[in-house]
Write a structure and sequence with these properties.
Blueprint lengths: L4 E9 L2 E6 L2 E7 L1 H11 L4 E5 L4 H17 L4 E4 L5 H10 L3 E4 L1 H5 L2 H10 L4 E10 L2 E6 L4 E6 H10 L4 E6 L11 H10 L4 E4 L5 H9 L5 E4 L1 H4 L5 H10 L6
Parallel strand pairs: 1-4, 1-12, 4-5, 5-6, 6-7, 7-10, 10-11, 11-12
Antiparallel strand pairs: 1-2, 2-3, 7-8, 8-9
Helix pairs in contact: 1-2
Amino acid sequence: MLAKRIIPCLDVRDGKVVKGVNFVNIREVGDPVEMGAQYSREGADELVYLDITASHEGRKLFADLVERIARHINIPFTVGGGINELADAERLLSAGADKISINSAAVRNPELIDQMARSFGSQFVVVAIDARLENDRWNVYLNGGRIKTERELFSWAKEAQDRGCGEILFTSMNHDGVKQGFACEALAHLSQMLSIPVIASGGAGAKEHFVDVFHKGLADAALAASIFHFREITIPDLKDFLRQHRVPVR
């Protein structure tokens, strides 16, 4: 079994890391560069930074921030949020990001996945999917969980893979921020049907949840925010716990 990755996620608004519950009730947490550097020192395998600022000024601020992050952090990091065309991705990769994550823009224009995979290589392209379980169907949502689409999680993930993305980052909106565990059943189905890595997001609240997401959910990586940001679980303690439960980590 390949080593499983632990990935702190940092939502950035107006140059600060923020966190919410079920995609609402946002509050400020800290400085993205300082927090990223700390996670790097503690043994995080990767980081994900998501720009949740909608304005053009916010976009410029985020690109400048990516340059600062790249100068201070020595582990791979992915950036996402507001990437709508090749030029957006190119600007962030040029600023120092290792991978880019696309979500709403990919649903609206699936060809964007093909274009990015051709231009940058599949290994640089992560397709993030926000989905909510409603009446036994995982419906895909856009715009930070505000707009319901006709898309369904599993068929959309398969199409994204077929179009050339290198990873799927699946966030269960039902589980996000409530700390009751990941959506292991859906994750296991995704992991078994796809040939690319699946990153689990939404629901981490205890060390046992990470054991479950790797053993039961078959995820390749697990992403979390608040439990790391508020020091409820530290990465060294989590990795020790995972090793004790036969989960291979770096």
